[in-house]
Specification:
mainly alpha, 2 domains
């Protein structure tokens, strides 16, 4: 009962807002890190890995959408709970937390490097 009440209070993103959020997350990060990646890895290797990453991301996103349609889950934690119980929910939450923590650390490192080179 309490969980249903929480779900009704959450504002859902429309299609445009979702696309812009994903664009900001992926393209914003890429703009910051790609020049250095190409410098370190070279054009051929970096381009090949970018294409492989692109196809893997699209494939995984399609799988997640298929699972969402079949299970009617509204978030990753709920999906983890439906598939593996409480353990699955905890593992999904840990994975999401560590992913977001990694992004934050990468941004802090990037800002630190830029400030260091500026000073």
């Amino acid at each position: 009962m309490k969980e249903d009440n929480i779900k009704t209070k959450i504002k859902k993103l429309n299609r445009f807002q979702t696309v812009m959020t994903l664009f900001k997350a992926f393209v914003g990060t890429a703009i910051l890190y790609l020049p250095r990646a190409f410098y370190n890895g070279g054009w051929a290797i970096t381009s090949a890995f970018m294409l492989a990453s692109c196809f893997a991301t699209i494939y995984c996103a399609r799988l997640l959408l298929e699972v969402k349609e079949k299970t009617n889950c509204s978030n990753y934690s709920e999906l983890g709970f439906k598939t593996m119980g409480r353990t699955g929910k905890i593992l999904v939450d840990i994975a999401l937390w560590s992913s977001q923590f990694g992004f934050c650390c990468a941004y802090v490192f990037f800002i630190n490097e830029n400030l260091h080179s500026l000073i």
